[in-house]
């Protein structure tokens, strides 16, 4: 907070919690296509409490919980002063860490399951990076609609535990890439009904190829990340003869085409699922003072780690 | 011809000419996904003349020129007996070699320019393999609609002649891959108006990547061949942040979704363009006796060669 007076129409929000997302790290690394003017504050989502309002403010009052009305830069801060429209009020009936993390990853999962292909009960979705927050949300949002998921996870120590956890969220099938390679693919595709209609890829490289192999005729692969930093290798045959499509998803682009009201409705729906215990995911709350350690964990320097959520005093 | 009697409703067609297409070769090699029961006759398109009809035949008479009503196997034959509906009558006001080659490559070019993105005058299409028959048709069909084309060709002896020929068909820009690499891409994209809406790929490998680089925001790459037999390498960034889409096109699939009437209307339109000298492409007529030599040429064993069209006595 720069200590300036609030302008009329602005509210001052004391931040309560904000996560470290992969895209936040990419922004700092300079590998994200949109670059802020530096110096800049990191973080694009989080939850805060209104601590001051100005006379022109109509829909927010002191003690309201708010999240950014669309993901924007600068949530790793103790206080933020912005016009009322930059905020979206949320209920206080969900844990802090869910309100802080609802607007990027769960929204991405919901949109990808909604905007690309018409999915009906019994249809199949296949994804890599299934332990990511998006991956966990995909499993549960699909399960709610009786859509089966086939989930690929990295081979790692404790992989059985990981599988059990994803199964408990509603995952029908969980494989490591190696297990998938040994599978009788023809039989498995028959078992799940002629292949997946939708594939979701946040990894790239051979893991993206593995997802594509599980797509059925006319299936769509949606890429929303490239964590391995390896390109997708794509044979021409499946494009031509199997009518496979490749698309990409970026929530930032979605936001430019939709109103704040659309965004508010989406986060409200997702937070209601959280409140009703139909959507859950693993986070680790970290005091803001331990930022450096949390950043290391978020960057994978200590192996697999849950989503790091900074908590402000 | 197996010497059998015609069944009622059938016509007997004496073939006049039939081309050797890459997909014909792939079928023989066994690399095409649909495999005929062997022994089988090659060739999927061509033109013939009706030499015998049966009482049940209503719309064809002796001396009519006909092409298969959709590409089907067995046109490398002197005579074919099939039911009337397997044939589509065509006018005799175009050269034989055009009637023989209208139903695969020109149709593919037309569909790809029509079915994937809405193109308006001034829009840009980029393609590799621009000297192929599809490539030549794309240039002219685009030119008719005032759509600019950017064309990539292999570096080869006589490349200047090739460029001049494509320009004479209406190509605005023709580059070898090497020339494209040296281009000031940012300026060039500005010059052609923010990049191509549609890219067409029949090669794969680095040449597919070159096409993708010329796509603008939201552009679509349509793959219809993989002549280099190399996969497409696809970075995840352009999918996510530039909203690039990858699709495939296969005329065989199109046919399963459309009627013989749709196909007849399409070939009629294209043959009218030929008659009006608005669509032309290079072919080489070869007597059927020289089949082996023509096949070698079609397989590229003698360098670049025009489309080989077998002519029957």
TrEMBL record, chains A, B:
GO terms for biological process: fatty acid biosynthetic process. CDD domains: ETR. The keyword Repeat does not apply. Keywords: Fatty acid biosynthesis, Fatty acid metabolism, Lipid biosynthesis, Lipid metabolism, Mitochondrion, NADP, Oxidoreductase, Transit peptide. It catalyses: a 2,3-saturated acyl-[ACP] + NADP(+) = a (2E)-enoyl-[ACP] + NADPH + H(+). Its EC number is 1.3.1.104. The keyword Lipid metabolism applies. GO terms for cellular component: mitochondrion. It is an enzyme of class 1 (oxidoreductase). Residues 3-310 form the Enoyl reductase (ER) domain. Pfam families: ADH_N (PF08240), ADH_zinc_N (PF00107). It comes from the Eukaryota. It is found in: Mitochondrion. One of its GO terms (molecular function) is enoyl-[acyl-carrier-protein] reductase (NADPH) activity. Belongs to the zinc-containing alcohol dehydrogenase family. Quinone oxidoreductase subfamily. This is enoyl-[acyl-carrier-protein] reductase. It comes from Physcomitrium patens.
């Amino acid at each position: 907070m720069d200590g300036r007076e609030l302008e009329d129409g602005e509210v001052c929000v004391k931040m309560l919690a904000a996560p470290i997302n992969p895209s936040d790290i990419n922004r700092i690394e300079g590998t994200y296509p949109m670059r802020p003017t530096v110096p800049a504050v990191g973080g694009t989502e989080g939850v805060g409490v209104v601590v001051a309002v100005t006379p022109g403010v109509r829909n927010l009052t002191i003690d309201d919980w708010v999240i950014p009305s669309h993901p924007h830069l600068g949530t790793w801060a103790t206080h933020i002063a912005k016009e009322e429209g930059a905020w979206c009020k949320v209920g206080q009936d969900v844990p802090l860490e869910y309100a802080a993390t609802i607007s990027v990853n769960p929204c991405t999962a919901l949109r990808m399951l909604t905007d690309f292909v018409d999915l009906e009960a019994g249809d199949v979705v296949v994804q890599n990076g299934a332990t990511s927050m998006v991956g966990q949300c995909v499993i549960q949002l699909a399960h709610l609609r009786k859509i089966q998921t086939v989930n690929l996870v990295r081979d790692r120590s404790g992989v059985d535990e990981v599988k059990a956890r994803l199964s408990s969220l509603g995952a029908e099938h969980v494989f490591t890439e190696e297990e998938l390679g040994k599978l009788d693919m023809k039989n498995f595709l028959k078992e799940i009904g002629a292949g997946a209609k939708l594939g979701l890829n946040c990894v790239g490289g051979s893991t993206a190829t593995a997802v594509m192999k599980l797509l059925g005729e006319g299936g769509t692969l949606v890429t929303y990340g490239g964590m391995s930093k390896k390109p997708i290798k794509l044979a021409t045959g499946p494009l031509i003869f199997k009518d496979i499509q490749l698309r990409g998803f970026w929530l930032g682009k979605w936001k430019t085409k939709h109103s704040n009201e659309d965004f508010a409705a989406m986060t409200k729906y997702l937070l209601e699922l959280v409140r009703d215990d139909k959507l859950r995911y693993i986070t680790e709350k970290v005091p803001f003072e331990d930022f450096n350690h949390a950043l290391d964990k978020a960057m994978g320097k200590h192996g697999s780690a849950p989503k790091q959520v900074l908590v402000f005093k």
